[in-house]
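Pilot study result, target chain (379 residues):
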Amino acid sequence: MSQKRLKVLQLQNYYNVNASDLAEQIIKSLPVERFEVTTAFLSGRPLAGLPESCAERTYYFDFTRRHLGGLRLAVLWRVLRYVRNEGYDVVIAHRFKPMSLMLWINLVLDLKLCVGVVHGIGDYDRFSRQWLFRRIAKPNGYYVAVSQAVQAYLLGLKSAFTPANTLCINNAIDISHAEGQLHVREEARRLLGLPQEGFVFGSIGRLVPVKGHIDLIHAFAKLVHHLPGACVAIIGEGRERPALEAAIRSHQLDGRVLLLGAYDDALQYIRAFDAFVMPSRSEGLPLALLEAMSGRLPLIGTDIPSMRPLLEGAQGRLYPPSQIDALAGHMKEVYFASPTMRDSEGERAYRYLCREHDIGDFRRRYRALLDERVLCSNE
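Predicted structure:
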């Protein structure tokens, strides 16, 4: 008789599915002959033509943002009923809201394992959040940090997160798949509407203050008259757009700094850039930086805890966050470096990516986490 499959629910805030998505990679780590995986989104669902989860089943709760604000008992009750009725053995929850729901549900139901995935530094600065996890978490709850920096942050809180229940599984990408998605330089530039000639400093990320795009614009403004043919191209969208557009106008950089908007699977356009700049002031573990490595690009990024080991390992260029002059200096160095030197930098970054952030190890560690912890719960 075949062994009964473990029923796993992966709970996320808002619909967001793409080839590099961490949650999708977790699903791929769990063999279908042993695990029945459902992905559930509290809010949102794909429009026509957008990708759906690779999970065996997908469930959309269709809550609105108003429903999800604060502690909403109606939301908790509906999710609890769903988990109970479906008979899930394991819940994997991403980010605070799904994780908090998971904790309350775990108090009521006899789950074998609960896994909370923590994506960012600062998510648990609030005392109320620390108190919640300290007071109601049960021994079958574990927390996965997406980088060593996030793990150090959680342990440093001296709260519910301990060396016994908090581990690190580095974010990773499917390198061979990523390379297969990349457009060649000319096609990538055509699709993005970029000039075929000239040096492009590229960046990918939501247009929000923490991503530091305003620093990139200010740094480029210092250099623009010394870098003929160069431009800055930023893929992403968000509430910071008006401020960035105002900075572009103020520095008279129209046509030299391009806000390209959001693109699905932005990775495929990475070879449109000659260098990749990540000016973030805070990050969990930036997938965009790993994706840039798959494109064999020279890297410039901020010296913050989550990015420092990546950039040091890849031998990229680091600068203190918001230090405009230091960023400008690195951009000037990359621009005037020989093509051979830039190619060498890109190859070093690619070798580091293959060595430290390959998807195979990521999948093995998630599979082992469920195997080991569920086995312990059955003993």
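One observation from the pilot: DSSP finds 15 helices and 13 strands in the chain. A full batch analysis is planned for the follow-on phase.
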